[in-house]
Amino acid sequence: MIKTSLEQIVDSHDNFRALLNVSLPTKVAYWVNRIYNKVVPLVDGFKDEQNKLIRKYGEGIMGEDKKITKYEVKDGEQKEKYLKAIDDLVKKEIEIPFETIPLRALEKLPIAPRMLIDYVFTEESDNPAFKKGLKED
Fold it and tell me: How far apart are the first and last CA of the chain?
């Protein structure tokens, strides 16, 4: 079981998405994709909650057509409340029902450090898919 925070998931989302474009061994690519598919709804849910909080604590900004086009949280008490609510939201512990991928699965690949997502790749892994070895299927 992968355990991490929503903050780590949100912060690494762009790097994770970029990782999907890297040529990986078939087995690694399969598991990266499966984990990513569990992460996407979490990021989307965070963005939805963030937008609700911006509307709750922010002020509407009028466009030229005299309609609210966006919301902005201004400095002051409302911003402090907004930041506290966001902080509470991202500190939430998340469990993803998969095992991590062992770093040895990427051993022979040139890969940027930012793509080594902490909650996806670990030194040791209990993922049964990688117990027999890492030979390309």
Answer: 24
